[in-house]
Amino acid sequence: MEPKKGFAVTGVLLTLMLAGCLPEEKIVRRQIIFSDEPAGAIAAVTFNIRCGNAEDGSNHWDNRREIVFDLLADHAADIIGLQEALDFQIDQIRRALPQYSAVAVGRDDGKQGGESCPIFYRRDRFVLSDSGTFWFSNTPWVAGSAHWGNTVPRICTWVRLAEKKSGKAFYIYNLHLDHQSEFSRQKSVELLAKEIAHRPHGNPCIVMGDFNMGLNEPSMTDLLRPSRPLRMADTWQTIHPSENPPGTYHAFEGTARGPKIDHILIGPGTEIIEVAVDARSFSGHWPSDHFLVMARLKLFE
């Protein structure tokens, strides 16, 4: 009896998948022209790209990934912190933007499982000195751990980078806090502040990510209170103290729903050159359900 055609095709695909022989999906490499910044001048971007397996209809990752690649390439940042990135999204961004190296840890298993908070950095300018990830929980070094009222694990990935020319180093912390539990955000802020204060070297630091709270919410004001051992400041608030910051979550509608919840923070001694929220759409389509936030900073001479 002749096998059904559908069964034959499925069998062939399964054989190819098991053998690892499926052709790699074509990803066009972007050309990036980096500015010739002086030592210590850093352009940083934080961007929640929305997880690639979400059922978003016309806004599914497959339909918007090209404009994500274009947007990131257009900013030509030195450092990129992403949130909600799944392993296959990170792989595609790596291939589209080969000028960057990346550090990424999945929140579910400490490897590649689940969403991550990857940090991309220019491979031509920086050397990775150290890196790590901690979970916002009572057991921060246990992969996948979640306490404090958050129903999914929440993490912070960090790197210590050194400039190739100057040899000077700095830290980047990239996080995604819980969207439901205020108690979780408060406890997470306490752990974050502790980890930053106890970092092995006293180098400058940048903290970025989706905090899921505005600047006026209690946990955020607690993180930024002047009495902390390491005083952190929000880049937007510092540059525009009398202005209400634009919201950054917009649900693919282009109009912000609520306050600015994506932030870039700095430690003492850092000069803020520019801060902006990129709310551009591309032919009526938005790259994500969040707007990208960028900051240009001077960390050291």
Please indicate the count of domains: 1
What's the total number of strands? 12
Biggest sheet layout: 6 strands, mixed
Terminal CA distance reads 77 Å
**Approximate helicity band:** 10-25%
**Any idea what the shape is?**
globular
User: What fraction of the residues are assigned to beta strands by DSSP?
Assistant: 25-35%
Q: Using only CA atoms, what is the Rg? A: 20 Å
Write the layout of secondary structure elements.
Blueprint: H1 5-19, E1 41-48, H2 61-75, E2 79-83, H3 87-96, E3 100-103, E4 119-122, E5 126-135, E6 155-163, E7 169-176, H4 182-197, E8 205-210, H5 218-223, E9 233-234, H6 235-239, E10 262-266, E11 271-278, E12 292-298
Parallel strand pairs: 1-2, 7-8
Antiparallel strand pairs: 1-12, 2-4, 3-4, 5-6, 6-7, 8-10, 9-10, 11-12
Description of the molecule:
It is built from six helices and twelve strands. By secondary structure, it is α+β, with helices and mostly antiparallel strands. The chain has a single domain (40-298), classed as 4-Layer Sandwich (Deoxyribonuclease I, Chain A), CATH 3.60.10. Strands 3-4-2-1-12-11 form a six-stranded mixed sheet. Strands 5-6-7-8-10-9 form a six-stranded mixed sheet. A hairpin with a 5-residue loop joins strand 6 (155-163) and strand 7. The N and C termini lie far apart (77 Å).
